[in-house]
Specification:
single chain, alpha/beta, 10-stranded mixed β-sheet, two-stranded antiparallel ribbon, globular, binds 3-isopropylmalic acid, binds magnesium ion
């Protein structure tokens, strides 16, 4: 296929995607459901260790609901790098079918093959799931009380640099081109979610983050549409920053507490949320929600940390991040009291359990024991 034909195919696919977005199914009404099925996916590397911890905690926290059949925590196997390489699929078909039968997903980190890993170039399972389940908003809270910081990031999750991240072309030995996609429907639904969140939480201010001075078409559209959405929320103060100065502002204690809600395109959101999580105490401490209309998937903000397993330090993986994600999941399904109980226990664990990556402190098992005792 020539690169012109390739480009033509990509454009047609994106036009079809926009049509699908317009016909997206409605969100489930958890309050009216007899049973909610939570799919629990271990993932790779430290995934099984932190997921075991989180499952044990949820089994205790939700014991009554599980016994009454109102909640099922269903383990979904096969989203492992070995199985994905064997099937040469980012998410093997049978695994995807099982996932789609659940209402909510709690997912451990999965390994993404990169250049130099000596693995086939399969797409990231995360990216594939976000696309397949149309999980358009990646919602990531970062809270640092001692600095007065209370941030909520709304990262676009299906387009931008990720939409065609593995569909770029090597035009020749000299030239490689990747593509970035921004759509009106994709931007509006994210902006809507962010402004609704800001409104529901006392009209917090909203900052739009782009590099629209350089990425004129894609980020230009994103910025313009977000400002247009802002007009529907006149009581909310809206401003924007370029992503470079935004990353500097976040670590500037003179101004960082003034930010509340951020709206970001996919790649900037990826980078900025790691920076913010590090300020909070490390990527191991931050949860992440991938919200769509029909599905929602909750995960740790960090990766699978294969190195910790290879070096025999797996027991020092920190389950805090996936447990924070579980708090977000409980809130999403309307289990507010359970969410509060778990959140308080996690706050207490942050004070009392000291997991350090070099292995000189507590273990994942110590963390689990502490949280089980606190709920
Ligand atoms: C994240 C991760 C993923 C991403 C990777 C694992 C594909 O870094 O969720 O932030 O880039 O989105
Ligand atoms: Mg990331």
């Amino acid at each position: 296929m020539s690169y012109l034909e390739h480009f033509d195919t990509l454009v047609k696919e994106q036009i079809e995607r926009v049509e699908r977005m317009k016909n997206a199914p409605a969100a489930p009404d958890f309050a009216s459901m007899d049973k909610v099925v939570i799919g629990a996916i271990d993932g790779d590397g430290i995934g099984p260790i932190i997921m075991d911890s989180c499952r044990e905690i949820l089994n205790k926290l939700l014991a009554d609901e599980i016994a009454a059949g109102r909640i099922e925590i269903r383990t979904i196997k096969g989203l492992t790098i070995e199985n994905r390489v064997a099937k040469l699929q980012a998410v093997p078909d049978d695994v995807l079918a099982e996932i789609k039968e659940c209402d909510l997903l709690l997912k451990g980190p999965t390994m993404t093959p990169g250049k130099g890993d000596n693995l086939p170039n399969i797409e990231s399972a995360n990216v594939k799931l976000r696309k397949e389940l149309d999980l358009f908003a990646n919602v990531r809270p970062v809270v640092i009380p001692e600095k007065g910081i209370d941030w909520m990031f709304f990262r676009e999750n299906t387009e931008g640099e990720y939409a065609l991240g593995n569909r770029g072309v090597d035009i020749s030995d000299d030239i490689s081109i990747d593509f970035k996609v921004t759509t009106t429907a994709g931007t509006k639904r994210l902006a809507r979610a962010a402004f609704e969140h800001a409104k529901a939480n006392g009209n917090k201010n909203v900052t739009i983050v782009t590099k629209a001075n350089i990425m004129k078409k894609t980020d230009g559209k994103f910025l313009e549409l977000c400002y247009e959405m802002a007009k529907e929320y006149p009581e909310i103060k809206t401003n924007d920053r370029y992503v470079d100065i935004c990353s500097a502002n976040l670590i500037n204690d003179m101004v960082n507490k003034d930010f509340n809600v951020f709206i970001l395109p996919n790649l900037y959101g990826d980078i900025i949320t790691d920076e913010a999580a590090q300020m909070q105490g490390g990527v191991g401490t931050a949860g992440s929600a991938n919200m769509g209309s029909r599905y929602a998937m909750f995960e740790a903000i960090h990766g699978s940390a294969e190195r910790m397993i290879k070096e025999g330090r797996g027991q020092f993986a920190n389950p805090a991040s996936i447990c924070r994600a579980a708090v977000m999941m409980l809130r999403h399904m309307g289990a507010m009291e359970k969410a509060d109980i778990l959140e308080k226990a996690l706050d207490a664990a942050a004070e009392n359990v000291n997991i350090v990556r070099d292995g000189s402190g507590d273990t994942a098992a110590d963390f689990t024991k502490f949280v089980l005792g606190a709920i």
